[in-house]
């Protein structure tokens, strides 16, 4: 076991350095002075150079080759599997390319934020061109003759191919389009209106985070342009954003990011700073954020409790009953922003991005044509035109930081969440009575025990199947959406 112990000691140091690099990214999004961006880009590039060197260190190959997997228990075999996968993958990427990617994406993030604020697509396209070219180079190196997009997808949803995801999306699309159309043709619930001060929103967002089990002794909430969760183990931080005309934006962004953060916080401490000590994939990660946000947080039972908290925080805000509030929370409406989309339309936003970024990586779509392609696809899918770049191609941070292959995991996470919700409801039949009191512990406890604590022990699909006892399918999600919104809209 000497080689295995040496390998794991080395991996813990590498994971710790990776957490430091992640903290630099968190700081850049939350507290870093805007003028510090050029220096931060160099810092990020330097960290990536160090990390890349460790990930391809020849000693890793020597340790791997001298370990007999049959001598290891289930955990040891999973650790070895993930170390081997990462090592073989990283070896294919030249260190200069990895360093340049870190440098350029750090710069691009700031340029994107300013271009978004200025509604200036042209200011963003040159740096995006650099990011796309670098990611294409990386994809080609990783694919070794295979599908470059699959090679990038491996970073976010290991052991999954784009063709498999495309098949799931193709199966979902007709029912989603039909449900969307039926909801928009029916009488809509009342929309929330009024002024909701920032301080009161942030106070209630902290209370919501605590209600879902977020540990503030091992995390914190800050504001960011684009909400995110950062870190793992015993330092997991989240961000939210505030619109004083729309408190749901803040509250459900918070609950969403708490889902991500609680997954990381609840992973067994036995896996701390090891390859298994983090969420197994972004799809599984998204299943946690989406089930927290939607099946639990937007359900009739929990919104009844949230209605009372809103009344206490804001007084009379025009909605007079818990049922009216529930319908307002789940209102299907036209809109441009993915992160603000209702459950019915959200996946259509993701499918749009999935198609565009596959075309970009394949070279079938050029960066110069991206805005026009986005606008054409959006109008085709949603029936109205994009009005501003910040509501269109500039709305998401992902492409600026090189996250190609990430977007499909959002909808895959919804599919996983549908499977988990069905299993959880069967296991906890009185769940709604507890949620109506603002008590999420039965739901979060079930997820913690059956999925979260295991971290990266199993492959993504196996993680979901282990938790649910069933094959992964989009049917539970689609059935849930049709029942829920059919009831709300009288379909």
From TrEMBL:
Keyword list, A-Z: Carboxypeptidase, Hydrolase, Metal-binding, Metalloprotease, Protease
| Role played | Broad specificity carboxypetidase that releases amino acids sequentially from the C-terminus, including neutral, aromatic, polar and basic residues.
Q: What is the lineage of its organism?
A: Bacteria, Pseudomonadati, Pseudomonadota, Alphaproteobacteria, Rhodobacterales
Entry-linked CDD domains: M32_Taq
Taxonomic source organism = Cognatishimia coralii
What Pfam families does the entry give? Peptidase_M32
Q: Which GO terms describe its molecular function?
A: carboxypeptidase activity
Q: Which domain of life is it from?
A: Bacteria
**InterPro entries (UniProt xref):** Peptidase_M32_Taq
* Signal peptide coordinates: none
**Catalyzed reactions:** Release of a C-terminal amino acid with broad specificity, except for -Pro
Instruction: Name the protein family.
Output: Belongs to the peptidase M32 family.
Q: What does the record give as EC number? A: 3.4.17.19
Q: From the Swiss-Prot or TrEMBL record, give the protein name.
A: Metal-dependent carboxypeptidase
């Amino acid at each position: 076991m000497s080689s295995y112990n040496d390998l794991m000691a080395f991996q813990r140091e590498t994971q710790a350095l990776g957490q430091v690099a992640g903290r630099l990214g968190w700081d850049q999004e939350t507290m870093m002075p805007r003028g510090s961006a050029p220096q931060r880009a160099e810092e990020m590039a330097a960290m990536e150079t160090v990390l890349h060197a460790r990930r391809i260190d020849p000693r890793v190959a020597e340790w791997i080759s001298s370990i007999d997997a049959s001598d290891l228990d289930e955990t040891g075999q999973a650790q070895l599997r993930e170390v081997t996968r990462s090592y073989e993958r990283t070896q294919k990427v030249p260190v200069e390319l990895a360093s340049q990617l870190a440098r350029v994406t750090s710069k691009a993030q700031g340029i994107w934020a300013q271009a978004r604020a200025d509604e200036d697509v042209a200011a963003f396209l040159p740096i995006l061109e650099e990011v796309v070219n670098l990611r294409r180079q990386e994809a080609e190196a990783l694919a070794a003759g295979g599908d470059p997009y699959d090679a990038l997808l491996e970073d976010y949803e290991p052991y999954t191919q784009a063709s498999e995801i495309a098949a799931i999306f193709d199966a979902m699309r007709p029912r989603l389009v039909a449900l969307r159309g039926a909801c928009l043709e029916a009488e809509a619930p009342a929309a929330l209106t009024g002024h909701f001060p920032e301080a009161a929103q942030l106070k209630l967002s902290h209370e919501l985070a605590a209600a879902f089990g977020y540990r503030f002794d091992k995390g914190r909430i800050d504001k960011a342009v684009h909400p995110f969760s950062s870190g793992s183990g015993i330092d997991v931080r989240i961000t939210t954003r505030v619109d004083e005309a729309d408190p749901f934006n803040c509250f459900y962004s918070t609950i969403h990011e708490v889902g991500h953060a609680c997954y990381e916080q609840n992973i067994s401490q036995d896996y701390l700073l090891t390859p298994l000590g983090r969420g197994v994939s972004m799809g599984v990660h998204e299943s946690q954020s989406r089930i927290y946000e939607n099946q639990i947080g937007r359900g009739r039972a929990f919104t009844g409790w949230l209605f009372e908290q809103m009344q206490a925080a804001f007084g009379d805000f025009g909605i007079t009953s818990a049922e009216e509030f529930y319908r307002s929370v789940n209102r299907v409406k036209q809109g441009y922003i993915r992160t603000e989309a209702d459950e019915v339309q959200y996946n259509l936003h993701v499918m749009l991005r999935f198609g565009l970024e596959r075309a970009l990586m394949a070279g079938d779509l050029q960066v110069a044509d991206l805005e026009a392609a986005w606008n054409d696809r959006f109008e085709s899918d949603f029936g109205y035109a994009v009005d501003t770049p910040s509501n269109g191609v500039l709305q998401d941070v992902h492409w600026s930081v090189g996250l190609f292959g990430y977007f499909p995991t959002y909808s895959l996470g919804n599919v996983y969440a549908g499977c988990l919700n069905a299993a959880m409801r069967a296991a906890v039949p009185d769940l709604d009575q507890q949620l109506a009191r603002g008590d999420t512990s039965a739901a979060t406890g079930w997820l913690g025990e059956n999925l979260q604590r295991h971290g990266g022990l199993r492959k993504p699909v196996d993680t979901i199947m282990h938790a649910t006892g069933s094959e992964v399918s989009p049917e539970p999600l689609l059935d849930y959406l049709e029942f829920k919104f059919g009831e709300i809209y009288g379909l």
